[in-house]
Every structure is written in structure tokens, then in C-alpha cells.
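re: ur question from yesterday

yeah so i grabbed the chain u mentioned. its 341 aa long if i counted rite. heres the sequnce exactly as i have it in my notes:
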Amino acid sequence: MFEEYTQQYITTGRLKTAYYRAGQGNKKRLMLVHGNLSSSVFFLPLLPALSQHFDTVIPDLRCFGNSQARPIDATRGFRDWSDDLVEFTDALGWDEFSLLGWSLGGGVAMRYTIDHSDRIEKLILLAPCPPYGFGGTKEETGEPIYPLGLGTGAGCANKAMLLTTAVQGKKALKRILRQFYFSPHFQLNPELEELLVEGVASIKTGDGMYPGDYYYTMSWPHVLPGEEGVLNAMSPKWSNQSALLDLIRKPDVLWIRGIEDDIVSDHSIIEFGHLGSKGLVPGWPGPGKYPAQPMIAQTRHFLNEYRKRGGNYQEVLLPGGHGCHLEAEGQFVFALTSFLF
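ran it thru and got these C-alpha cells back, copy pasting raw so excuse formatting
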């Protein structure tokens, strides 16, 4: 499937990056950055349409896909990934382009924009990691729950799911794909499903990679983030994108999300506050001490503040779940191209 697209490689001083490219020669440039537990293949179905209008590049991030397996310094938040992409775009010769980030990739895209806003024509956030980090915050303003980072990071990785995946392989990964990425009524093309399963399975595990290190604490839910690894980099202990609000040059922002997204949600099925409220994690201290993180409300409040400070954004809702760009492919491509032209 998609045999017409061949993965290429660029080696910089930081990383050997695998990527797909199509539409080279088009004036407008677009980079798509994938999310957690995925890879560039999650955007391959979009290439035929997008490459008609854009010089489109889809890299695999560090620790994902076929890019080099190197550890993540989580104390830098999303910077290891964004710095990788800076050298990658330098090697491409791209000095200005539009940047789309999905889920974890949304955090990477925001970080890149904060550090290099002069390069970003327009910013597209597809079901992005909340601006104040994933988990461990409350209220629309992203107030932290203390100790900082409580209930976030590598200690939140589902150990039973990881064990089942190790034992059952592709069978378990297909269940994870259907349960977490898409709405219940969506039927994946079997050939595409196999490709996406390979993308999920491509994540690099081990020291400093996925999921990372963590610490135990007496406070519920008894985990604190460590200093290394993929999941810790998303913790509010290490990541906060508020500097985006203070940019002098603010690129226009398109925020796209799926109506049935259960991952980045005000009721996320992988966030301890929500899980505790449903009785799925024993010992929940109640909403006064550990409420569910209102991820959508936080992103909307953040982008409204971005607008108040001189920026522009628009929000688009699509049918589907966390992978709404594949469930509603036509509507997604229309929304994206309309925004970029």
C-alpha cells in the first residue's frame, strides 16, 4: 500500500531522520508531525491529496518509526524533538513553511514555533497535547496539581497493556488501534490497518526512550515523572507552552479535533483524574484534590488568550476520534487546504 512513496533519510548532527516527501516543486511547504505511539505512516493516506498543493514532508520523530533510536531528555520538554526538526528543516533548505502537529506532535509543533516563529507561516494543531502538559493540571487555566507532575509521565504507562502487547503482538496492537485511535463505528481498510499497526509497533523502548523512568510517591496516584523518556517529556513538570502567547510574530492557528476523541478530551480515558472518578483507579481522593484535566477547555482558553494578544485561530470539529484525519479524510483535507490558501 502506498508503494509509490519511498522513505528517505537525512542525517544531521543530532539525528538520522526517516521521512516521506511528495509534491516537491510546489511553492507552499507543509510538514506533518505524528503523535505518540504512531509514526509517519499515519499521514500516508493524505499524501495523494496534499501533494497536489504542497511540498509535503512527513518525518518520523526520534524514538519512532524508522528514525534513529536516541534517548529523550524529558527535562527539556518537547525540545529534543523540536531541535531535531530544526536541523532537519535546515538540511531540507526550508526557511519558511506551515507546520502541523498531531497529539504529541502538537506539542512539538508549538515548541518549534516558540523557538523559531520566523519560520512558521501557519500552525495547525490536530488534537494537540494540552498546552500545559498531559495530565496533572486542573481548570481551564492549567493550574498544576502538586507535587508538580503528580500522576503524569512514564508511571502512567499501562503495564498490563504493554505486557499483553509483548505477548500477543499484532493482535493486541489492532485492539489498541481500534479502541484508542478511532471512533467505534469506523472500519479501517485491512491493508491500512496493517500499515498503522506497524507504525504503532515501531516505537523504540529502553533506557531514555519509551516510556521513560518514574518515581513512586505517597500521594495518589503514586507516580511522579522521571527525567528521561517519551511520556515524561509531556508532563507539566517539564512542559508548558505559555511562551507561545508572548510571541511578537504570531502565526495563524488552525485547531482541528475529532468530536469523539477519547484521548485528548475533557474526559480522557488515559488520564488519572478521569479514571479515578470512574472508579477505575482505586483510592481517588475526589475532584477537590485530583479532578479530571479539562484538556479541550484548556486549549480553547489558551487559544482565546492567543487571540487577545494579537493572534488568530479557528477551530474545526470533524467526525471521528483521535485519528479524525483518517476517519474524515476528505473534510480534513478541505479544512487544511482552505486554511493554508
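noticed a couple things. The longest strand covers residues 16-22. also The chain has a mean pLDDT of 95.
anyway ttyl
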